[in-house]
């Protein structure tokens, strides 16, 4: 049975592009009109792209573990560090340099900056922490926590079978709704919104969902009664319905609750399709290549937005022609910067770190699926 699932890499580009589109909507390149309303309609729920990353991360890591990619946990954590940290450090340093030169007033103080570099900044209920330096890096603090607890999830799920995995998957989806309802009884809406949008524990259910789904696929134990849900048309329909609903529900439900089922079904459909060698848009070389660049693209796109804002101003609200040109410039510059980051920092640093003698002697990790 194949170990690599290239469609999952291709799907990463979809998630990164949703986040990119959301930020284009928020920075208001277009004056009020049909294009501005169109961006809001299509990308207003783009924050759910981060939820896809979290679910996919759990799925990929559990799949690798289940299909022969297991290693010592210290080696696992080192591989995760080698995967995510070099690009994070590089973009953080670039952002700090840009801030220091052009907007020194937004350079974070020592403690938030240190928290960011240590990937613990999403634990503080203060935007000066969880939005520090490169604002999108808060999700990496969540991933760092997920990596820390992953051995516990593996231990629990590998001792059980299909029933355990189904219960964990269902419980994870339920937690996305029950958790906020329960929290609102004892805390303010602002505190609950912060917890379930930004914090590692608040986003853990999404990662656990991915882990449980991978366990079901690895066991070849996907429930037969749900087989039809994992065809691309049905999974896409469920996802689109949830995505549309996410724009009409309050925080904290909008960030994951509406789309978790759709994202999960899409990931399972893509994985099972790859295992059967079925045709897939997401397996095409160009799409897979974009997926390989998606992590770097995610990290650099707000830095590109910052640089362009120095030229055109914040929230420029341009006419249609100039707004489209600026949008295309942002996309192309972000893609170009992502390629540079991926080829000159991410890949060489990972190769260097994994080439150390103490790591080289361990079993290699399954390639291609990212983060």
Automatic annotation (TrEMBL):
One of its GO terms (molecular function) is hydrolase activity. Keywords: Acyltransferase, Hydrolase, Membrane, Transferase, Transmembrane, Transmembrane helix. The chain crosses the membrane at residues 12-30, 42-64, 84-101, 136-157, 164-184, 204-222, 229-246, 252-272, 293-312, 324-341. GO terms for cellular component: membrane. InterPro entries: Acyl_transf_3_dom (IPR002656), Acyltransferase_3 (IPR050879). It comes from the Bacteria. Residues 7-341 form the Acyltransferase domain. The keyword RNA-binding does not apply. One of its GO terms (biological process) is lipopolysaccharide biosynthetic process. This is Peptidoglycan/LPS O-acetylase OafA/YrhL, contains acyltransferase and SGNH-hydrolase domains. It comes from Micromonospora viridifaciens. The lineage of its organism: Bacteria, Bacillati, Actinomycetota, Actinomycetes, Micromonosporales.
